[in-house]
């Protein structure tokens, strides 16, 4: 149950007045920080996807102020693609705040999200794809889903995939995220073998021409396997959020979960 559902349930149960509910939603919509940020603090209530702070091209001071403001409203915030200066500024501004590495991201804050019953699977073609896949998993887990993951099962040794696929079928996920660089073949292979949506997550892993993720994303976009959708290169946040939205929607239709 996200924050919006909780507010609506409180109104329905008589624990919260409609006027106060409207105030709480309004308070969570936008918060302006100086002249550089307008934080969408109502996104989790409105959409079920948390605010994620993208660090690249922001100054360490801006990142620290944004994270501090988000943590005033929520117990955790995800910081995507920070450099060491960003991390140092956050730790200095928020002393005592737990900081956990999640691939190329940091999860700031304590506690765990409430489980929704949604389930996703996650596969990486190679170990080099892990930083991006783990970012996707951080976002998905922040949205309350359970994830079953397997790593280094790419097409260079396709026999490695058979065991994980059977375990994923037993786990019965609502969606599977597959991260791959190089030629990006693994998502198409997986999509042809499972009956749930697959999200292809191309990574900027590889040699020379196309090693920036171009070859991987083009290969995924040209797939002949139905049921495969593709996010942009290294977009772990988008892959994780989309997978969790699918899983949480499915879970909401199955009260027994």
From TrEMBL:
Gene Ontology MF: a single term: hydrolase activity
Q: Which Gene3D superfamilies match?
A: 3.40.50.1970
**GO biological process: one example:** 'de novo' IMP biosynthetic process
Domain PurE per the UniProt entry, residue ranges: 118-252
Domain of life of the native organism: Bacteria
* InterPro entries documented for this protein: P2CMN_synthase_LarB, PurE_dom
The record's section on PANTHER family has:
PHOSPHORIBOSYLAMINOIMIDAZOLE CARBOXYLASE-RELATED (PTHR43064), SLL1489 PROTEIN (PTHR43064:SF1)
Tell me what this protein is called: Circadian phase modifier
Organism listed in the record: uncultured Rubrobacteraceae bacterium
Lineage, top ranks: Bacteria, Bacillati, Actinomycetota, Rubrobacteria, Rubrobacterales
